[in-house]
Each structure stands twice: as structure tokens, then as C-alpha cells.
Amino acid sequence: MPAQTDCFDVVVIGAGLAGTCLAGRLARDGRSVALIDTHAVHPHDFRAEKYGSAQMSLFESLGFGAAARGCTTRTDTVRVVRFGSLAHWERNTEYGAAYPDLINALRADLPAGLLTVGRVADLDLGPERQVVTLGDGRRFAGRLVVLATGLGDVLRRKAGIVRRVIGERHSLAVGFDMAAPRDAFPFQAMTYFSERFGGRDAYLTLFPLGETMRANLFGYQQSNAPWAKAFRAEPEAALRALMPGLAAHCPDLAVAGSVEVRPIDLMRAEGHVRDGVVLVGDAFQTACPIPGTGIGKVLTDVRQLADAHLPGWLATPGMGADKVAAFYADPVKVACDAASLRSSLYARALATETALPWAVRRVRNRVARHAIRYATGASQGAVRAASAVAAHLAL
Questions:
Q1: pLDDT, tens only, 144-192
Q2: How far apart are CA 227 and CA 241, in angstroms?
Q3: Could you tell me the residue range of the domain that residue 138 belongs to?
Q4: Does residue 219 have a pLDDT over 80?
Q5: If 188 and its partner were Cys, which of 65, 75, 132, 373 is the partner (CB 3.0–4.6 Å)?
Q6: Are the CB atoms for 166 and 266 separated by under 8 Å?
């Protein structure tokens, strides 16, 4: 006897950031939705750990503001250090949370019973009805399947969609906890930029997670390079060697626990306009964490799909490629994806390219940053003006 098939408007596969927020938003809008993931509780995963006000506004717009705020640690001022010297104090609200804690808090805010735990074994896609079959034989039918599977490749390939690598090992993220408690540091949060050009390090950010001061170091190293191996073995010594001026701003550089290292590839889906299936978030296009565009890109996908496209799609027959194509051509999504990719490529080039045009850009940026530094002794209006000049020169 064939297994019973449960029917839904939308079947979302993957309960990370994109899938959880999309399923919750659709359920609150009165849609019948299934959310499927292999884990009842999101496992340990080192990725996005800090969010800004713009990202929090997106959480709010999707109905997850309270859940996101409830699991994060908020800061309102950031010490910004460039070339080893204090550039300015930045009034900027940021929120820190370990990624699994954020996802589990968002899941806890879902309607009861929405999440199904299981492994997807097969997809049957078409212009009218989609069927998702789990490894234990359970079947879920829906008008639309959404792949929110992040870096997972198996289901994307089952859907006949390929991935193009834009930048292999584009950047490297390193995460670790400082040994001293957060109240031992002379700042709420700090962003410490590279002390030199050409060192392939981008910046270190220190921010609280509860009572712990968390550190994220970003750069353009390879995960198997001697530098990365040395950092895993002796992180404090590696920090002091990499950023000799850091101790003047953060005297206690002792590190507690293990060091996590994550290489980041830039990738984008191709051949993705298919009947009955949509890719969102990193399943469609990945982002480098250095410019800080990833969370906004993911949540923009969710908002545009849920608000601008699905209501019309579900109100009319069929779920063919013509409908799916409209999402990928959405001007808000297209602009967000393009800006994320552009900023990722620009940031790497600015740090690593040796050609004359990039050297000129670096000099201009440094001059503009010095203007900001001297403006810190003047009015706030002068600081804002200097910041605007620096932003302009960075283009």
C-alpha cells in the first residue's frame, strides 16, 4: 500500500535561517506549509554571529523580531580601530548570537507541529504538483517546493540545478571566545581593521554573546595555510603577530576553548528556473561575511517570495517555470544579490590586488580614514561628513 501523502500549499526543505523564517511567515499568513529538516534541534554551526539594525528590521517585518531580540546580546557603540589607531567611536546598534541559538529561537517561535524531522530522499517536480518523499516513506505534496538547504548539494542536483563557483576559497572566517569576561574589556564592541595592506587579513570584530566576549576574524587566507594552522595551535600568539597594535586596545588577548575555521566559497545557482521549485538564501547564492551582506540577502529572499510572489502564484492554477522566473527576476532580489556579490568581490580585491588602480584606491581610502580620525575631535556633523567622504572614495 502506498504511503499516505499529506498536501500543502508550500513544502519548505531546510529549517535554517531562510527556511524557518519563510515557513513561519507563510503559516502566519494562513498558508498550509510543511517545513522539513534532518534535525529537531539545529546542531552546532559556525556562521553568521552578528546582525545590524537593518537585519533586525527584516526579522521584525517577517514576524520574528521578538524571537530574534530575545536570543541576542545588544550593543550600541563600537570602537573602530584602523591602522592600529582609534579612528572613532561609532554609534551603531548591533546584535550578537551564536547561529544555532538564533535558529533554535526562531524555530521555537513557529506554530506547534510545523517542523517535520526527516531526511528527504526524492523529489518529483512538475508544473502543477510537487511530491517530496522522505527516507522513511512519508510523502508531502505541495503546489511549490522551496529549497532552503544552504550549502547542501544533493537536493539541488536532484532538481536538475547546477552551481557555478564564482570564487573558490574566497575568504576565511575564524571564530573563538576570549578568556576574559565581557566586562573586562574597555568597550561594548570593537572592530579592528588590518594594520597594513597586503597581509590578506581584513578585520577582527569583538562583541558580546551573553557574558562571553566573542571574536570573529576575517581574511583572505587559505584554511590549510601555515597561518591558519598556527592560529589553531596558538591563537593568542598568532593574534599578537598578526595585529601588533591590538594589545593597546585590548590588553588581555587570552583565548578560551577551541578555534573554529570556516572557508567561504562564492557560488551561484544556474539552470534554476524550473517547474515547481524555488531556491532561497545560500541555496541560490552564497555571500562572503566580510562585507556583512549575507543575512540581509537571505531575509530579502524570504520577504520577496512570501509577500510579492506567493500570494499571486497560489491564487492561480499551476506552478510552472514562468511563475518561478518572476521571483528570480524580482528587482529587489536582483539588486540585493548583485550588491552582495559586488561588495564581496570589491572587498577582496581592495585587500589583495597589487595592480596600480587598487593601490591608488587604498591610498585614497587611507587618506579619507585619517580625515575621519581627525574629525573625531570636532563636531558630530564633521564626523558624518568625513565618513561620507570615505564612503564615496571607497566606491
A1: 999 999 999 999 999 999 999 999 999 999 999 999 999 999 999 999 9
A2: 10
A3: 5-73+95-166+266-345
A4: yes
A5: 75
A6: yes
